[in-house]
Structures are given as structure tokens and as C-alpha cells.
């Protein structure tokens, strides 16, 4: 009977659909790489209780301490048995603050005296201008900080630390999963102290970045590489007269234009970090990250690392933009 055949066809169709198509749909969907998150956004207050960072009309997904640990454990479980997840921060004190915020995200312990007045800097405990490696065993992550105050042509602190990463990569040892790097304010300060014009120092800064870029591109073959730009300053609190927002912007433009000149570079320019610092006014000293800026910055990094893996948050979504607002996004 035709009716039976219709039912049969529909049943077989449904079985084929649920057995073969549905399980694959998730992998066929484009993975949200969180690119939008690193590019732009604004602080918004969708409700009285909550303020959130909104890239392109959606809410930044917030990772709890448990979410973050679970994500890193999952990353570790995908590696060879004795390999940890490696997260590397290379740069100046602002980058060290991002390292501190990442550690806090996983441990709950704050050690950043620059964004928390309750903490005193103890030189013997806080290695301000030195390399440091911290292994967080319960999350299986090694967090490294390489002090690199200024850029160089490959032979200085920044260049040498990148070389080290490349050597490790070639040996398949401690291959970094994420590298966050940045510096600039020491260049601006040195330039002023030597009575040179910032315009001249800026040209050198850009040239040095371009000479380091091949190393960064090499690292970016296996590592997510993020350039953290200069953030907003509050000049009225700073004694360095050259620490102005127009200088910060000028140095950022030098990096942006250098990266834009290499269309195939996978290095991510973290534009939303600068945007975030303009939206917030929480720096304690006018130069460094304040607590809220660091918190959102770390959440952006967690999204960048974790969203592509699977869902770890209570909302169960692995999108950077889980709350889709009408009319904004598909
Ligand atoms: C975090 O995870 C641990 C162990 O998996 C659990 O005991 C604890 O209750 C969790 N904490 C929160 C706030 O969910
Ligand atoms: C500093 O300590 C005081 C008193 O214990 C506490 O109320 C405050 O929340 C702490 N501030 C920070 C930023 O942790
Ligand atoms: C790199 O910089 C160092 C120190 O500033 C300098 O001595 C060296 O000549 C430079 N090398 C190149 C290839 O520019
Ligand atoms: C920079 O200029 C100031 C004032 O013109 C001068 O006192 C100082 O010695 C100069 N410093 C250097 C390093 O040339
Ligand atoms: C800069 O700091 C001063 C002094 O603490 C404060 O009054 C002012 O609001 C800040 N300005 C901006 C633009 O953040």
C-alpha cells in the first residue's frame, strides 16, 4: 500500500538522518574561533546585576575556576602522556599582570600587587623582571613568564625567548599552546631619556617587530600567538610625560600596520584589549591593568583556548557568543 511505503520511507529517512547526519553536524558547523572576541567589543550592562563584555552583540562566555581547570585538563588529556599544557607570557609588567590573572583564574590566588592594594610586592617572592615557570599540577598546565621589556632584532630578551620556544617546538618538547606577548612602554621611556624623538624610536620599534615576525610566524604554526597592544594610560597620575595615549596609540598602529603588511601571518592582534582599557577606568596607578580589565582579558584568553574544545560552562555552549541577540547575528 502506498501509505505503508510512505511511512517506511520516512522511517528509514529519519533513522539515516539521526544516525548519520546529526552526529556529524556538530563537526560540520564552523568552529567559533573567537576571532570576533579578540577584535572588538564593548562593556554593556544587560541587567542591573551584571556587566559583561560584548563582542559583536553577544555576551562573552565567562569561565569559572572549575570550568577553566576542566578545560586545561581536557587539553592535557589530548597530549602525550607526560606533556603539560604550556601557556607562555612574554613581555613587560603589563604582560606579567596577565600571567598573574591567568594564575588567579586557575588557583583563586591573587599575587598581583599592581592591581590589588592588599598585596605587597616581596622582591624575593615576586620575580618582577625575571623569567619564571609555574606548574599547576591539578590542571596540568605550565605557565611561563619571560621578562622582555623591549623588542629587539633577535639578539635581545624578546628574540632569545622566541628562539627558545622554536627550539623546543623542533624537539617536540614543551610546545606552547598559547603565547601572549607585548611590550612598548620601556621603549617609550628609554626614548625620552635619551632625548630622542618618539617618531624615530617608533620606526625602530616597527623594524624590530618585523625582524621578530618570522619567528612569531614559525611559532604560530603550532601555537596560538597573540600580540597584546599598549593599553590606555591616565596621564594625570604618571610622572613620565611621554606616557600619553597618543604615544600608546602610535606604537600600537606600528604593530597593526606591520601585521597588516603580512596577510598570511596567523599572529592575532588583540585589539579588544585596548578597547577594554578605554571602557574601564580601573587602573590603580594609571599605567597598569586594573582588576576588572584583567578579569575580562583573562576570560577572553579562556574563550580563545577552550571554546574550540567542547563545552565546559554551565550554559553548555562552546560558542564565544552564546547569547544570540535578535537581529545581530545568525
Ligand atoms: C569544582 O569542582 C570540584 C571537584 O570537581 C567540586 O567539588 C566543587 O564543588 C566545584 N566547585 C564549584 C563552585 O562548582
Ligand atoms: C582587601 O582586604 C579587605 C579587608 O580584608 C577586603 O575587604 C577587600 O575586599 C580586599 N580587596 C581586594 C581587592 O582583594
Ligand atoms: C642587533 O642589535 C644588536 C644590539 O642592539 C646589534 O649589536 C646588532 O648589530 C644588531 N644586528 C642586526 C643584524 O641588526
Ligand atoms: C636631554 O636633554 C636635557 C635638557 O635639554 C639635558 O639636561 C639632558 O642632559 C639630556 N640627556 C641626554 C641623555 O642627552
Ligand atoms: C585619571 O586619574 C585622575 C586622578 O586619579 C582621576 O580623577 C580621573 O578621573 C582619571 N581620568 C580618566 C580619564 O580616567
From TrEMBL:
The chain crosses the membrane at residues 6-23. SUPFAM superfamilies: SGNH hydrolase. InterPro entries: SGNH_hydro_sf (IPR036514). Keywords: Membrane, Transmembrane, Transmembrane helix. This is CAS1 domain-containing protein 1. The lineage of its organism: Eukaryota, Metazoa, Ecdysozoa, Tardigrada, Eutardigrada.
Amino acid at each position: 500500500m502506498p501509505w505503508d511505503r510512505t511511512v517506511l520511507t520516512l522511517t528509514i529517512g529519519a533513522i539515516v538522518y539521526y544516525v548519520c547526519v546529526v552526529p556529524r553536524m556538530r563537526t560540520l558547523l564552523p568552529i567559533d574561533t573567537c576571532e570576533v572576541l579578540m577584535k572588538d567589543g564593548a562593556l554593556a550592562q544587560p541587567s542591573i546585576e551584571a556587566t559583561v563584555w560584548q563582542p559583536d552583540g553577544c555576551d562573552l562566555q565567562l569561565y569559572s575556576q572549575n570550568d577553566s581547570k576542566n578545560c586545561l585538563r581536557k587539553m592535557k588529556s589530548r597530549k602525550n602522556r607526560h606533556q603539560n599544557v604550556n601557556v607562555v607570557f612574554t613581555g613587560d609588567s603589563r604582560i606579567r599582570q596577565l600571567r598573574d590573572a591567568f594564575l588567579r583564574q586557575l588557583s583563586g590566588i591573587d599575587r598581583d600587587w599592581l592591581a590589588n592594594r592588599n598585596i605587597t610586592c616581596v622582591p624575593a617572592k615576586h620575580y618582577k623582571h625575571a623569567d619564571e615557570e609555574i606548574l599547576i599540577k591539578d590542571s596540568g598546565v605550565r605557565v611561563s613568564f619571560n621578562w622582555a621589556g623591549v623588542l629587539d632584532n633577535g639578539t635581545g630578551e624578546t628574540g632569545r625567548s622566541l628562539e627558545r620556544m622554536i627550539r623546543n617546538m623542533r624537539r617536540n618538547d614543551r610546545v606552547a599552546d598559547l603565547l601572549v606577548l607585548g611590550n612598548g612602554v620601556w621603549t617609550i621611556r628609554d626614548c625620552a631619556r635619551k632625548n630622542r624623538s618618539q617618531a624615530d624610536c617608533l620606526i625602530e620599534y616597527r623594524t624590530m617587530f618585523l625582524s621578530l615576525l618570522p619567528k612569531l610566524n614559525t611559532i604560530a604554526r603550532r601555537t596560538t600567538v597573540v600580540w597584546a597592544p599598549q593599553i590606555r594610560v591616565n596621564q594625570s597620575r604618571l610622572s613620565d610625560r611621554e606616557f600619553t595615549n597618543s604615544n600608546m596609540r602610535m606604537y600600537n598602529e606600528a604593530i597593526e600596520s606591520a601585521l597588516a603588511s603580512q596577510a598570511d601571518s596567523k599572529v592575532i592582534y588583540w585589539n579588544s584589549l585596548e578597547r577594554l582599557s578605554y571602557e574601564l577606568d580601573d587602573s590603580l596607578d594609571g599605567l597598569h591593568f586594573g582588576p576588572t580589565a584583567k578579569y575580562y582579558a583573562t576570560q577572553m584568553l579562556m574563550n580563545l583556548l577552550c571554546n574550540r574544545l567542547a563545552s565546559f560552562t554551565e550554559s553548555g555552549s562552546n560558542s564565544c557568543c552564546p547569547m544570540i541577540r535578535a537581529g545581530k547575528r545568525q
